[in-house]
Design a protein that fits this description.
This protein has 293 residues and is α+β, with helices and mostly antiparallel strands. The protein has eleven helices and six strands.
Amino acid sequence: MAESLIDLIKILRDRTGAGLMDCKAALLNNDQDLDKANDWLREKGLAKAAKKADRIAAEGLALVKSCDGCGKTVIVEVNCETDFVSKGDAFKELVENVAKTILHESPKSLDEAKELTKDLFTDATVKMGEKFDLRRFEVLEKVDGQYIATYIHMGGKIGVAVVLDKEDAELGKGLAMHIAANNPKYLSKDEIDPSLIAHETEVQMNTAKNDPKLAGKPEAMLTKIIEGKVNKYFSDMLLNEQIYLLDESQSKKVGQVLTEKGVKVVKFVRYQVGEGIEKRKDDFAAEVMAQAK
């Protein structure tokens, strides 16, 4: 029995990962011949997508999505090539669907998450003509009594999720905003890798050796000075040591505010779109000349 057009679309989609409407167009333009339709898609869409593999996807959106029923929250960063595309509804829909899929499936690794969402990205590339990438994600799950606060800044350029040991919506929102603005790396000094502390101690020791003001200081005093410099270096990275953004007196540290409220931060995650990605600077004139060849 000959397959219907719907059956052929499904087969072609399974073969290529292309979008439904693209598979339909490929079949209709090639007398419903699967092999020709496959080549047509490669020429019109997938082959073009492959050429984009070496492009840098440094724009995009961060999204935080929660499930009240299951108690899970997911934070994702999805990248695209241009800021223009990142502001479009089609890209926002892609990010939303990626977050939904991860929230529902709870993959254990980035590779697993990419496998689960690969059709979404294939469809998006064919539709929007850019390189897209699921850069990172984390699924947070609260236990009884805990509370997860979320915050999105600048329309998705920064996303934050904070897990508190008890429910305090107002404090949770304030902490999420603080984390978005101040970018702490750790909750407290206990979370810092000891090798990083050892490295910074060595740096400060070598700096002290070259500081004429510290020449001749007793070893015990020098050790204290170096320890103080190391603590100062890391203090700006510690959430508990930062001055709380919403404190009117601008004198209370986050740790003090938490103590007064009787609340503890269990964990926090902050994603800023494109952080750590080196954006390519194109030479427009060279690109024009390359196209003219």
